[in-house]
Design brief:
This protein is α+β, with helices and mostly antiparallel strands. The chain folds into three domains: 47 residues, no CATH class; 163 residues, Periplasmic binding protein-like II (D-Maltodextrin-Binding Protein, domain 2), CATH 3.40.190.10; 233 residues, Dipeptide-binding Protein, domain 3 (Roll), CATH 3.10.105.10. It contains 19 helices and 23 strands. Strands 1, 8, 9, 10, 11, 12, 13, 14, 15, 16 and 19 form an eleven-stranded mixed beta sheet that branches. A four-stranded antiparallel beta sheet has the order 4-5-7-6, covered by helices on one side. Strands 2-3 form a two-stranded antiparallel sheet. A hairpin with a 3-residue loop joins strand 17 and strand 18. It starts with a helix and ends with a strand.
Length: 546
Amino acid sequence: MYKLAPFLRRLGRVKLVISLFCICLLLAVGNTFIPQLSTPAEAKDSRITIGTTNKPRTLDPADAYETGSLGLIYNMSDRLYTYKTDSTEIQPQLATTLPKISADGLTYTIPLRQGVVFHDGEQFNAKAMAFSLERFIKNGGKPSFLLGDIVESVKATGEYELTIKLKKQFAAFPSLLAFGGVCAVSPKAYEIGEGKFNPNTFIGTGPYKLARFATDKIQLDLFDKYWGEKPVNQGVTIQILSSGVNIYNTFRKKSIDVAGLSMDADQIRSLQKSAEKGDWQAIANNGSVISFMAVNRNQKPLDNPLVRQAIAAMIDRSLTLDRVLYGQGQPLFSMVPNTFDVYKPVFKQQYGIDGNPEKAQQLLKQAGFSRENPAKVELWYRSNIPTTGLTAVVIKAIANKTMDGLLEIQTNGIDSTSFYKNSPQGVYPMSLVEWYPDFLDADNYVQPFLQCEKGSPEKGCEKGGSVSQGSFYYNDTMNKLIEAQRQEQDPVKRKQIFAQIQDILAKDVPYIPLWQEQDYLFAQNGVKGVKQDASQLLIYSGITKS
């Protein structure tokens, strides 16, 4: 009635009485009148608004390789497998069971769900899933290598049966099928061909469908024909903000329901303190992203393993984490994070929990260095990533304070583009890097870093993952262990192999793990169900507000 007041005030006394009588009559006999007025308001109130700086580059799953894109695709799509809540264990989604694997470990047979439709009304079946996977491989997008390097063929061997043949054994293959971009897309809306992408639209089978895609705002509406459990909200609006400061201020003004990625550590700390007072909610999630130092074994004095071991022994992870991120993370003692049951804290076992300066000094002296002849090492960081610069400063300060003049660290900054271009060329003795996993299996924290296709103990790696990561690490035993775990289907035996891999990692020190990141999300009071999956993607469908 409030909206009618200006109009009614302009009416005369008689017209006012007549108008009120008519309204009362409508309320009495038109029982659909009230719902028609209230439903839009309810729908608006039950939509969730999420703020983030992660602007999506594309919505085409065959070309999406960034968190901003994958987060949206994940919530609008289904994959053959997905992660269980709060776990790195996979479960069927468009598949009905885990795959049946042939005796030689090369052929995966997957039964598929029936009764699924795409957002455009097309029916989902094995041919549609085979089309989606073939397109992911053949269109040549950024993540195409994930399947292209491993998959020999994809065929529909029944209306609802998919058969995938691999080029080589890969025990982690089912986990790879849970990657956000390996989802089903409508064959009617997409085509296969090099570079043939649809960056501004998405037609999948998920619980949300794309309603609006603009540079500053993305709107997802409910898909009313979704086969699975329906979202608890009436849709989601993603507000793309230009900086962490804007997210911080917009959330404090209560203009968004959930503050997602990304804010600086001091902004997170400020919101945490307010959450402790009950102003809003702070939700911490154990992350799968790791931060580490890459150590180039081809650069002096790092070609001496004793020097690499000394630097590993010197690192005080708790202090560094506290100074850089105000403790917003966990110290990491292996390249494999502790979210996996194969994790073994080998650097803690070998060098101590909070640094061991005495051991570090002993190792440097054993390598032939002294106060008069200190080991001099350059540590490079990306100047446009503030946390890496601060990390470099802290590590240099630790060396100056604890190494008694035996180690001198010089810090140098460079932009990210130049850094990633130069790193495989062997330019940097030591560098600070993060790793965002492609899929959640311990293999993805080992093979891309430690495997070398071509190399020697004398020259190091000339071709392989360790070249691209800047360490140039080569160890023939390590190569054999990596291949062994990729072929091993028995989880117990595979865990034993990973233990051997991590033991060698701590001895050879091609990388020095620093910390495992922790994601923080903030939600207004009354907002419930804010969770991330194991790959740190926010799950929209469970978020609701009172």
